[in-house]
Amino acid sequence: MSYPLPSIFIAPSRRAEVRDDMAARLYVQLRSELMSALMGDPQTMVSTPGFKPRHTSASDVFFDDFAGTDSDARRDTLIRLLGDAAKGEDVQLRASELLADIASRHAEFHEGDALMAEGF
To answer: 119 by DSSP, 3-state: which?
Structure first.
């Protein structure tokens, strides 16, 4: 595996381009890591570069997401999803969308701190 050069060694004219590329990779990495954990074992530790400790269980990240400004609406969406699943409805697509939204919010929140950890 090759590692990118620390940002101090990158020409100033390319620094913004390299930073944007790194931000995109980190976003995808953070999002994918949480999605995989939520769809697998919720006790899997995932990266949380904006917090101490730097790793938290996926289940903790999941429940922390419901503490935000629009938490009531998202909580109600989850409850409706569970209710529909209990009635036997096919909720696979809605469940995937909910997890993807949580993973995207997680990646957006931690992307800046992950960039700082990479030297940007």
So the answer is: coil
